[in-house]
Amino acid sequence: MIYGGKTLLQDPKTQASREGAAQPELKLSAYFTRFIPPANITILLAFLALILVFASVFLKILSAEKDAFKREIVTVANVFESHKQKLNFQLERYAASNAAYLKIDTEFSLPWIEERFTSDLATVSDYDALFLIAPDREIAFRAFAEQTSTGTPARNFQQILSDESIPRIQQNYLDILAQDSTQSRHFSPYVSELSQVNLYQFGEDFALATYFAIVPDPGGIPIAQRAPYVLVTLHVLDAAHLETLLSALPLEDLVLVQEIPSGMIGLQLTPDTPDPDAGPAYLAWHPTAKGTSILLSSAPVLGITVGCIFLLALFSIRRSQRDRADLKVSERQLHDAHRIAKMGRFSISSDNVFNCGAETLQLLGTPGSEKISSFDDFCARHVHADDQAPLQSAVRKCWQNGWPFGCEFRVSSTTDKETTLRMQGQVHNGGTKDELQVVGMIQDVSEFILLGEKLRQSQKMEAIGNLTGGIAHDFNNLLAVILGNLELIQDCETSKITQSHMEDAIRATMRAADLTQNMLTFARRAPLAPKQLQLNQIIKDTQKWAGRVLPETIEITTRLENDAWPIAADPSTTESTLLNLMLNARDAMPNGGSLLIETSNILLDEEFIKTVKEDQPPGFYVMLSVVDSGQGIPEASLKYIFDPFYTTKGPTHGTGLGLSVVQGFMEQTGGLVLVQSKLGAGTRFDLYFPAQTTHTTKGELPFDPDMPAPPHKGKKARILLVEDSPSMLKMLETTLSQAGHSVISATSGDHALLAFESADRFDLLLSDIVMPGQMQGIALANQLRAKQPSLRIILMTGYPKALPDITKDLSEGGQVLTKPMRTKDLLLAIETALSQPSLDTATRTASVD
Q1: CA of residue 151 relative to chain centroid, distance
Q2: Residue 792 in contact with residue 765, Cβ under 8 Å?
Q3: Which pTM was predicted?
Q4: Chain-centre distance of CA 647, in angstroms?
Q5: What are residue 225's phi and psi, to 5 degrees?
Q6: Are 828 and 794 in contact (CB under 8 A)?
Q7: Which of 162, 215, 294, 660 has the most CB atoms at less than 10 Å from its CB?
Q8: Alpha-carbon distance values, 251 to 7, 72, 240, 244 (Å)
Q9: Mean pLDDT, rounded, for 407-426
């Protein structure tokens, strides 16, 4: 089975052979294009290329910045190393001389030392502290600058003096002496072994310590064979010294730290040491190369820009996908609209080539694979021979004048069904003269033509009705003259034979008058003479002579309301209406059956009116029901049975006016007629006659509440009545009061709950199910039953289809009546509920049609 182009059911062999066949591989490109169209792939590739460009530029800037960092560090290292060499050279001038050796190592002249180091050396090197270390590593002399003379931790000086540089320099000196024992030894070539420059933490700052051995230079004097004195100078590197030292370099925020802060670069000045108290020292500054910083600072902007580009690309993709999805939905909707409206497209090119879609071929009743070569071929194969010339002429004029055209034609078919199509089109210019073509739609208008015929038939029937009413009215005048003259002749004539002929003529005239009355009723112009009557009496009178028109194979049963309310109707027409329905029932039971005629008092409320969808006012009615067990009426014919001249009995068995007369009479009476039928299950006609009401202190009622109530057997009860319809509430109050019950009324479930709580006790709850307010009928019943388990419950509903759900939710022992209900059925349900011995019995549900 094929549906929508997909195979739903397949032959097992075919399916097995397809499963066994090798499935073709799905290429990667086809896989992607299946989900992402080529246009969107282009957008994605452009976006990826943009990302790559950004990444490439960032990497190049990062690489160039790293090179710049290295160059800055090397430059600073060179400057710093140059400063160290300068300090070492300055100290060398004062430590490596014969005079220094003689005044310090030989005779130790303190005045000379103070003059030499505290005046001259301090001026040249600008040291912060100076120490002269003896061969036994004791401090022989010290001097301080003013800013470091106080407040400097002693541990800092002890760290400098206990450094391994002093013993190493002294040992190097002794090794040099051991290599050459001559007294004229020169020490200039060994300057690097006799000096040292180190960096130490000095308080919150750092300091450069310069070490140099006191040696003779250029020599030629006696040298003692012992360790030399070592001259130590200390240069504190605070912010001022660093700024002066590196003033030639464009460095920002130059600091000495033990750890390089984030966003800065630095140069390690001290070697790594295992001493935990002597951490590494770094000279740190903010780099002059700002590329990465600029990129990092602009990263949010770049991220937002790239994100926006991505979102725009994604939005474009999603919008494109949504547009394609909407386009597919629109195409499907257009296809469905064409199918529902029975339309199809076509085009005719300038060289007479005819193109059409599958919908058009379906309208033509041809297979979808059929090829139509030209417009002439289309006309010859699918257009009725009598319609070919008008259609070709209309298309030819469209080509000549450029005017839109429309033409109906019949489809040539071998079947008995006649299909009429309408072709509409106009000239369409595709951009050039060679692209001119006639485009348009073809639609099946067979149903419209049929509806037009029905409309004309209806108008004709209306005209016939008007004509019939006029003729019947004039014919009644003629019959009145004939009847009057016949009665005059009858009064004057004494001959029995003549009298007999007169009686026959008068009876024929009366039958003609009845026929005229039926014609007027059909035309809904019958001059009815309504008066108050009892339907039960009409039925009893009709039943007396019904046997003459109904065969013995049909059993007639009556079920009449004992206290049926009076109605206002024309007696003769009411009797004719009942006879009409009985005759219809007879024709529906050719082999016999049963016929039930019943009456009942009914209150039609708003709920019931909504279910039947009739424009009928709610109120009190007397229902006349005629139920047969015949063949039933097909569902397709139910909506036509009240149309004039519509009949299913054949041309010789009915005129089609019977049910039309019934409906016309009920409309004139202000009533309502409903029909229920099912093939093989019989037919039921319900005629609702408005009941005659009496004006009372409680409003319009169909009977006088002041009249003595008829005797009623059974237990009298205290009843809580809940009904939101005022008319229904009044009727039920009166009915229950006349039956001897005590009634407390409420218009909603919420009011009923308050009334129940304020009263002593109730025997029975009679409530509607659907009411305004929060508390509905079922919830009210269950809640009151929980408070008073002995309370009997009867609920009323206008929705018979909801009975299973209602009985399922209703507490045990409750009953349900369906509206409209007969008075005797309501009183019987109350009597049954009150007679229940206990509430342990199973739930009983009463349903009254």
Answers
A1: 80
A2: yes
A3: 0.35
A4: 50
A5: -90, 70
A6: no
A7: 215
A8: 80, 9, 14, 12
A9: 82
DSSP-derived letter for residue 602 is E
pLDDT tens by residue, 225-235: 888 899 888 88
- Pairing type for strands 792-797 and 814-818 reads parallel
Characterize 216-242 residue by residue with b for buried, 16 or more Cβ atoms within 10 angstroms of its Cβ, and e for exposed.
Answer: bbebeeebeeebbbbbbbbbbbbeebb
Q: Pick from 352, 356, 384, 380: which is nearest to 370 by CA?
A: 356
What span, in angstroms and rounded, lies between the C-alpha atoms of 217 and 588? 152
Q: How many residues does the chain have?
A: 849
The answer to whether 672 touches 666, Cβ cutoff 8 Å, is yes
Mean pLDDT of 813-821: 74
Query: What is the CA angle 523-524-529, rounded to 5?
Result: 130
Write out pLDDT tens, residues 14-52.
Answer: 444 444 444 444 455 555 555 555 556 666 677 777 778
CA distance 8 to 2: 6
Q: Per-residue confidence at 511, pLDDT binned at 50, 70, 90?
A: low
| pLDDT (mean) for 608-621 | 75
The pLDDT value given to residue 647: 64
Give the mean pLDDT of 750-768: 87
477/480 Cα distance (integer angstroms): 5
The answer to whether 288 and 251 are in contact (CB under 8 A) is yes
Q: What is the mean pLDDT of residues 738-747?
A: 88
Distance set, CA 638 to CA 286, 525, 675 (Å): 98, 25, 8
* Each residue's pLDDT tens digit, 140-180: 888 887 655 444 544 466 767 777 888 888 888 888 888 86
Return the closest-CA partner of residue 351 out of 388, 385, 376.
376
End-to-end CA distance of the chain: 45
